[in-house]
C-alpha cells in the first residue's frame, strides 16, 4: 500500500486565494494595503531565489512588497537603523530579515530589534514566549504551514504521539509548541537522541526537520503514520546526467511511502506552504495594527 500524498502546492494555493480575498476586503472596505518588507544581505543564491519568490507572491496577492537588498559588508548598526525605519513606517506591516545573516552580524540582536507586531517570521523572543505560553503570537511560517497541512489531513490530533526530529528555533521548537497546542504528546528528538529509530517508530505524527538528506528510513516510520518532511536537500543525481542534482527531504521517501499513511513529498510538500503562511501572517499583522 502506498501513502496518501499531502499536496503542499494545493494547500498553499488555497491559502494564497484566501489571503488575496482578505487583501481585497481590507483595501475595498478599509483603504488598507498590507505591506511586507524583506531585507537581504549579500548574494547567497538560495536566499536570492527565496526573496524573489516572496516579492512576486506578495504582489500577486495584492499586497505591497518592499525589498531592501544590501551589500554583504553592511554593518550591524546600518542594519539596525534600517529596521528602526521599517518599524516606524506605517505602510510596512510585516518585516522579514532573510537568514542566514553574515557572521559579523548578531542575528539574535537583529531579530529582537524588529517590532514584535511586525515580526511576521515569529522569531522575536516575545513571539517565541507568547507561543510557548499559549498567547496570541506571530507563528513561524514553516511550522505554521506544517500545522495547517496536518489539520487539513487529520483534523483532530488530540492524544496523538507526535515526534519532531530537529530542535531548531525556526522549525523544531515552534513545531513542538504548535503540536502541544493541538493536545498531542510531543517528543523533540535530535542528533544526540538515543535510539532515534525507536523514538520515531512511536510517532503517529512524524515531523522531520533536521536538514540531512534522506536520514530517516522507511523502517523508522510507524505503519499508517502521517509524515511531514521539512527537509529540502540537494543531492547528486547522476541518473539524470553528469553533474545533475535533485531535491530530497530528510525522509527517505521511496522506503517511507510504502509504510506511512500519508506523507509530504519533496519538492511540493512543506516548501510552498512557507511563503503562503508568510503572506497570511502579513495580513494578520495588518489587521492587528488597525484593530
Ligand atoms: N531562511 C530560511 N528560511 C527562512 C525563514 O523562514 N525566514 C527567514 N527570515 N529566513 C529564512
TrEMBL record:
Q: In which pathway does it act?
A: One-carbon metabolism; tetrahydrofolate interconversion
Instruction: Report if keyword Hydrolase is assigned.
Output: yes
- Which residues bind NADP(+) per the record? 166-168, 232
UniProtKB keywords? Amino-acid biosynthesis, Histidine biosynthesis, Hydrolase, Methionine biosynthesis, Multifunctional enzyme, NADP, One-carbon metabolism, Oxidoreductase, Purine biosynthesis
Superkingdom as given in the UniProt entry: Bacteria
Instruction: Tell me which residues make up the Tetrahydrofolate dehydrogenase/cyclohydrolase NAD(P)-binding domain.
Output: 140-288
Swiss-Prot/TrEMBL catalytic activity: (6R)-5,10-methenyltetrahydrofolate + H2O = (6R)-10-formyltetrahydrofolate + H(+); (6R)-5,10-methylene-5,6,7,8-tetrahydrofolate + NADP(+) = (6R)-5,10-methenyltetrahydrofolate + NADPH
EC number from the UniProt entry: 1.5.1.5, 3.5.4.9
Q: Where is the Tetrahydrofolate dehydrogenase/cyclohydrolase catalytic domain?
A: 6-121
Q: Please state which protein family the record places this protein in.
A: Belongs to the tetrahydrofolate dehydrogenase/cyclohydrolase family.
Q: Which HAMAP family match?
A: THF_DHG_CYH
PANTHER family membership: C-1-TETRAHYDROFOLATE SYNTHASE, CYTOPLASMIC, C-1-TETRAHYDROFOLATE SYNTHASE, CYTOPLASMIC-RELATED
**Role:** Catalyzes the oxidation of 5,10-methylenetetrahydrofolate to 5,10-methenyltetrahydrofolate and then the hydrolysis of 5,10-methenyltetrahydrofolate to 10-formyltetrahydrofolate.
* Record's subunit section: Homodimer.
From the Swiss-Prot or TrEMBL record, give the protein name. Answer: Bifunctional protein FolD
Organism of derivation: Rhodovulum iodosum
Gene responsible for this protein: folD
